[in-house]
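Work Package 3 (structural annotation) set out to generate three-dimensional models for the target panel prioritized at the project kickoff. During this period the team completed the workflow that converts sequence records into discrete structure tokens, so that structures can be stored uniformly alongside our sequence database. As a representative example, we reproduce one entry of 820 residues exactly as it appears in the project archive.
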Amino acid sequence: MKVILLRMIRFFTYILIIATSAIIIGLGGAMAYVKNVTKDLPDYEVLKKYEPAVMTRMHASDGSIMGEFASKKRLYLPIDSIPDLIKSAYISAEDKNFFEHFGIDPEGFLRAIIKNIQNIRSKQHPEGASTITQQVAKNFLLTSDTTLQRKIKEAILALRIEKAYSKNHILELYLNEIYLGHGAYGIAAAALIYFNKSVNELNIEEIAYLAALPKGPSNYDPFKETDRAIARRNWVIDRMIENGYISKKQGTEAKEKPLGVRFRDTSVYTFGADYFTEEVRRQLIARYGSDVLYNGGLSVRTTLNPKLQLIVRNVLHNGLVKFDQSSGWHGAYNHIQDIKNADWGNSLSKIEGFSDIPEWRLAVILDSNSHGLRIGLQPEKEETGFISKKRETGFISIKDMKWALRIKNSNAKPSSILKIGDVIFVEANHHEKNTYYLRQPPKIQGAIVVMEPVTGRVLALSGGFSYSQSEFNRATQAYRQPGSAFKPFVYAAALDNGYTPASVILDGPIEIDQGAQGIWRPKNYGETFSGPSTLRYGIEHSRNLMTVRLAYDLGMPIVAEYAEHFGIYDKLKPILSMSLGAGETTVLRLVTAYAVIANGGKSIQPSMIDRIQNRYGHTIYRHDQRKCIECSDYEVEPKLIDERDQVLDPMTAYQITSMMEGVIQSGTASHLRYLHRTIAGKTGTTNDSKDAWFIGFTPDMVIGVFLGYDAPQHLGNSGTGSGLAVPLFGEVIEKAMAGKPNLNFQLPQGMMQIPINRKTGMHAKPSEPNTIIEAFKPGTGPSDIYQVIGSTESFKEGVKVPLLSPQVNRALETGKGGLY
């Protein structure tokens, strides 16, 4: 018996030794494996300096969103800014013991094993057991490989992360990094993309749906997998009830509601501001680079005034369409073959229109008769993103397309310009149900810029008919000849150099010897001469010959210097033809130059950006560089110190402004008198009427209008600044200033106002007819002797040559025969 007992003891001793050895060897092997695995583990301390790629957002001056730029759509939210209900939903769905475990959840791990054994029979997908901390380790530091080695690394990193960081920091990382589908990274971006709401606006069912997405966003697509999405959302709601985060009643009510997903689209952005937004985007890239723009999380506050921008957009849109229709029909936009045997709706949906002109829709001609056209309208997109299967038709009455038939003849039929299958643009006629106006994209283009003269802030900008049609910005990228719109700067240079508004210049024929280029004979518009006239008259009536004589007498080098100081040109050739605006500049640069006159001569930098903040809310750029004195003392009124350069004498600025007021009162922009407002400005028309301009201003607003073809060509008989640009300016300023008081330009201290004869420029006697009040600088005044600048001489660039043909002298004497 003792022998048997002894043998049994030995046997179990051997077993124990072997088992112990196996355990030691196993532990040693495991430790060696873990050591081998952990030696290449990434540094988890990078989480402390975590700066994810964050979306840059661009805002208008009123805070409305203009655009978003991101490689990954993410808005980073500190944990304190995330509502508790969102935290609770994700904890319930992903890791209910998050605040209790140490990075790994043994209870959850065992529960997952049991559940997965049960799932084998039901052939359901296996459940994971990763905690939120483990998911942070995987998402930030590891790959998504489904290997044992990766899971071990994940677990080890989770343990280390839990020791290094607080639960709130870990949860903050998770909720900002997690991918939730449709390009959304993090809860803030997902709230905007799925529901167009901030995180604080989400309700229970919306939060629960977003908390359902980490398991696989595509598996729970709200439109493609609606039933699965609702089931998963309701499961999350049940977990929230079970964990005590919401009441059973709240949960029951939430589960009865639909998903309510409404994908965010571009309609949330400021309408009509595409050219403005793109220009700011280019400036940001030039300043900071693409990486900062798309990943740096900048907050950009622009100068854009959305209400004014809408006015500018609509005025330019309607003005271009109106002018274009006067030239008749250009032709169909596209064509669909075999329209009777094909699904025209499907074919039409594949043709792209203009996304930034929502009032227009594409349509296809289904039938034609003498009364008009029957059309099929392009199917619209549903909220799901799919094309609607509904087919809408409408009618274009012949009276609503008369403009297109006018060039043919008064009795032309619709079939003479359009055939079945042609694709066109239409606009709803809201006065007659189911009827439409015929529309066509205009060939002419244009631009309007509105600026605040004191600061240089661009309040509104439109660079063409449609950004969707053409991204080329005619306000900032198109270099065009300003024509007569440049003349005020010639006259301003003269006023700064001894001339007065009452100085008299000869308005008569001139011949300029240009050497090898032959004789240049500048011309007045209207083929008339006015003889000796004041500088004021020359501006008011845009007299070319007076301007050339003035530039010659003053010296073109001085004119060129002033043009460059005003920023109109980088370098202007000092030749006489440039005095008539033959150089090329942009609308923005010319508007900026006029703003200098309007603000009393202070230099300004045009700006479309007020302020830029980095991802931490620190201001890294501010346009307004004025220094504030005593701003920290709340008991003393603060003073802003303006250290900008004085480009133009304030008295000169007032004189040229007063002269340009005359352009509206009695000159080339007299159409604007109906506004009954104090406005100064100047029209501009280039040779052969290829460019039409008007730049006008009040004391607090400068507006520049330009129209012309991208490939310059004649605008027609009415294609002048007066005929085309002035009416658009009038529409903009009438709507922009509605309800606002009229402001007058302030006379600088020390200037004298003296009555003069409008024609001779001499001091006017009491009750003398044709008298005006003119402003003079101290030490100047109307001449006592009648003097005329210029004479019946020919000119050579830089040299007077006393030679004029008898025909030219005769034309001057009669006041007729002047060339264009």
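The CA atoms of residues 617 and 799 lie 62 Å apart.
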